[in-house]
Specification:
With 219 residues, the chain is mainly β. The protein contains 1 helix and 9 strands. The strands form 2 sheets. A 6-stranded antiparallel beta sheet has the order 2-1-3-8-5-6, with no helix packed on it. Strands 7-4-9 form a 3-stranded antiparallel beta sheet, with no helix packed on it. Strand 5 and strand 6 form a beta hairpin. The longest helix is centred in the first third of the chain and has 20 residues. The chain is elongated. The chain starts with 7 loop residues before the first helix and ends with a strand.
Length: 219
C-alpha cells in the first residue's frame, strides 16, 4: 500500500511533538539538592547571651553594680567639712560591662527626696555643679575651670557619649576591675561648689542629700 505523503507543516508538527516528549522524560530524571541555613552560631541562634549592663568602679578598684533604687554610698573626701566658699571634687568611673552590646550614657545630679537630711538646714540652693568626662576631655555641664560659675541643680545633666562594648567577659559585683576595649569606660569628674554669700550664715550646720544618676541605653 502506498503511504500518503504528509505536508511539510504536518511533518514539522510531529517533529516538535517528538522533542517535547524527550524533554519530559529528562525532567523526571533531574538531580535535586537543598541547603538549610541555621542563623547564628554555636547553636545560640540570634540575640546576645551577654546582658547589657553598666557598672561603676569603686574607689578600691572593685566592681559596683549600683543598680537599685537605694543606690550605693560614695564617700567624698572633705564632705564633712564642706562650708561656704569650698568645692568638693569626686571622680566616678563607669563602664560598659556587656561583652558585645554598645550603648549611650547620660548623667544627672539630683536630690534624694527633697534634698534635706533630718532637721539640718537644706543648703541645696547654694550649690553649683560642674562636670567633665575626663576620658574624653569633654565638659558635661558647668565650668570645671571655675566651679564658682557652675550650674544649679536643675541644669546639672548631660549626655555623655557613646560607650563601646567591653569586648571581654562581664565582671561580677566585687570583682577586681579589669579594663575592657577602648571607649568602654568613661570617667566623670564632678565638682560641687558651696557659694559664699551672706545668707549662708543662717544655714550653719546645713547639709544636702544628693546622688549622681547614670542612665544607659543599648543601641
Amino acid at each position: 500500500m502506498k503511504k500518503k505523503k504528509m505536508s511539510g507543516k504536518a511533518r514539522a508538527a510531529l517533529a516538535v511533538g517528538s522533542l517535547l516528549g524527550v524533554a519530559a522524560l529528562a525532567t523526571t530524571a533531574a538531580f535535586t539538592d537543598f541547603a538549610n541555613i541555621n542563623l547564628g552560631s554555636g547553636g545560640e541562634g540570634i540575640g546576645s547571651s551577654s546582658k547589657f549592663d553598666i557598672a561603676v568602679v569603686d574607689t578600691d578598684d572593685t566592681v559596683l553594680q549600683a543598680d537599685t533604687e537605694a543606690g550605693v554610698d560614695w564617700v567624698i573626701p572633705g564632705a564633712d567639712s564642706f562650708v561656704p566658699g569650698r568645692t568638693l571634687t569626686t571622680t566616678i568611673p563607669v563602664f560598659n560591662n556587656s561583652k558585645t552590646i554598645t550603648g549611650d550614657l547620660s548623667v544627672v545630679v539630683e536630690a534624694i527626696g527633697d534634698g534635706s537630711i533630718g532637721t539640718s538646714p537644706n543648703i541645696m540652693k547654694f550649690l553649683k555643679f560642674s562636670a567633665t568626662d575626663t576620658s574624653t576631655g569633654t565638659v558635661l555641664f558647668g565650668d570645671p575651670a571655675d566651679p564658682t560659675a557652675g550650674v544649679d541643680l536643675a541644669s546639672a545633666e548631660a549626655e555623655i557619649a557613646d560607650v563601646a562594648a567591653r569586648g571581654a567577659d562581664s565582671l561580677a559585683e566585687g570583682d577586681a576591675y579589669v579594663s575592657g576595649a577602648n571607649g568602654s569606660e568613661h570617667t566623670i569628674e564632678l565638682q560641687v561648689h558651696f557659694t559664699d554669700e551672706p545668707e549662708t550664715a543662717d544655714y550653719n550646720g546645713g547639709q544636702a542629700a544628693l546622688r549622681v544618676h547614670i542612665d544607659a541605653q543599648s543601641k
